[in-house]
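Dear all,

This email documents one entry for the complex benchmark we are building for the journal club exercise. For each entry we list the sequence lines for every component of the assembly. Then comes the predicted three-dimensional structure of the complex as a token string, followed by one or two observations. Please use this as the template for your own entries, and keep the labels exactly as they appear.
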Amino acid sequence: MTDTEFTGDEAGVETATLPLDAWHRAKGGRMVEFAGYWMPIQYEGIMAEHLWVRENAGLFDVSHMGQLALSGDNVAEALETLVPGDIAGLKPGRMRYSLLLDEDGGILDDLMITNEGDQFGIVVNGAVKWEDIGHLRENLPDDITLNHNEDYGLLALQGPKAVDALARLVPEAASLVFMQATRATWAGHAIALSRSGYTGEDGFEISLPNEALTAFADALCAMDEVKPIGLGARDSLRLEAGLPLYGHDLTPAIDPAEADLGFAVSKRRREEENFPGAARILGHLADGSPRKRVGLLVDGKLPVREGAKLFDGEDEIGVVTSGGFAPSVGAPIAMGYVPRDHAVPGTAVAAEVRGKRVHCTVAAMPFVPHQYVRKTGG
Amino acid sequence: MPRYFTEEHEWIDVDGDVATVGITDFAQGQLGDIVFVEVPDTGAELTKGGDAAVVESVKAASDVYAPVDGTVTEGNGQLEEDPALVNSDAEGEGWFFRMTLGDKSQLEGLMDAKAYKVFCDAL
């Protein structure tokens, strides 16, 4: 038998270890190479871990992601030259999902931008963080300071019981709503937390010094409702939540309109038409893009995975960019790109898997409803 | 009834001229939750080392190779309804297919249970 996914060889580059490497191994994590790091793909099993997060709280180590900070005069305006979001209007303590765009409007990365008051915090994907840093440094004015904070790790606690668990350690957690962030202290360490994540569940991301990670992870996993969760379940959870994965569902060949991420192009920025690739993107948003990212419900049990070609009759019309078995749906699901006239929910298409045609139906996303908490005490 | 093992983590039970083939308990543990198994059609001609079946876990699709030459006499239809049988009973109810033995001498290169355990321990 040979595995066909998650090999992730980075030729010539030595795989790095995360600050929590020994902790993952001690917890029974099966380590694989991902984004240049040894990371846990699973502990007890992807299915059980996935379902645990939907019912309880799961702890993810996402320390491979890049934690950057930008500061300086007019930093919001400078950042707006590279992303289509309203950064100048982002209030202190608020965060926004945004996209790093090349000059043609192609997506270089997706990222989270937080107004931390004295600086903008940016979390970028681990696999492209060095490219992102290069792009930012090359395109931002020299008087903007760019900091790559490698002394901090990043943990995500996700699931309906995440707020109760985290608030026992950091009471401030309970006062945040979705896409709010604050600084806090835990056991004498300066930490930062936000109510955000990439599973579709309520939850938090917590940035804390590398030397505090093990004790913090232990404190959370000592609670009955918290278990460590691997990359495998992180992928199936975000797929069910309809959230695209950079390098798979998003690439430099795809613009925000095609990716169905029009919400990331803020109203003021649309009016100002002054972000990279504005002509192409605004044209696509106004008239519809030739192709669009859609969800696919798959008939039967055969998983339809990344790279599967999509057909309408004999015509090849598109491609699957991620897919697999969805534990909470109980069936295979996928996302991919199809022509505009095939993007309407309910449209029948066929995916080709090992020479067989598998019937799929274009579906609205998310596949599993988001559970974001937008008001506290409600 | 002798049981043989391959370095590709298949087991093969031999009963006269007929063999039953599956993946090992070690293999199912490595794959994790199995959500789909594609077994070969009855009558399919298999060649040692060639593709015979596909097993899909939540995370990946993996090929299962034919351990010896032969003709498929039966696929395990139960796996279509309940692919998780491979997780719960890989070396029993979770068998993949039965085949005739085209060349019994090919069995000589395979491992017995003891040798396979040593092989897995070294991985």
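Observations: Chain B has a mean pLDDT of 95. The longest helix of chain B spans residues 113-121.
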